[in-house]
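Researcher: Let's continue the batch. This sequence belongs to DUF624 domain-containing protein, and it's 220 residues. Same format as the previous ones, please.
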Amino acid sequence: MKLFNPDSGIMRSLSKFTDCICLSLLFFVSCIPIITIGTASTALYYTVHKVLRHDRGYMFRDYVTSFRENFKQTTPVWLAALVIGIVLGLDLRIANFYAASVTYFSALSAVSFLGLVIWFAWISYLFPYMARFENTRKQSMKNAALMVIAHLPMTALMLVIAAVTGVALYIAPLVIFIIPSVYTWIQSYVLERIFRKYMSEEDRKAEDAKYKADDDMAVR
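Model: Same format as before. Here are the structure tokens for DUF624 domain-containing protein:
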């Protein structure tokens, strides 16, 4: 029956759905030691972009390979980002505590919240950037920060996507088992439009040729 043909639309969709669940579970497991969250995010983006979006490679192997190769590079970056996030979170908590009695702290609370939003936008660029480009840690952190500012409409769009994802998770907590992969997949459509602008013409052509060759091979 065509319905159960591996190349049919339904079977391919089911396969992608299963891959999203497996990849999300793999991501959660590799995040258990909190210090590896940055590395896990980098590996997740790399695997989503390569395997789920472009059907190249093998999910588990590519995830593990990316995780292993990026561990030393991304761990210090994540720890630095985590410290910044904790400081901003504590500032917000303290400001909210005193805001009821001191007007000044209401303004400080708003500033702290804005700082957390900017921090989240920054890391939303940072680890996908490190998955796609080779650079020093310092330069990667700087470039991600510049992208937040240089592409404000896209940054705002990613924040909306994150907010919608959060609402979906609140309404249906069980989607947590697929959210990391799906969110990263959607996010990649925004980020890749930006990242390609920073790739050389030669690199863009080489990547396009590689994807085209893989698509032609899949058709055959």
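Researcher: Any comment?
Model: The chain has one domain: 2-219.
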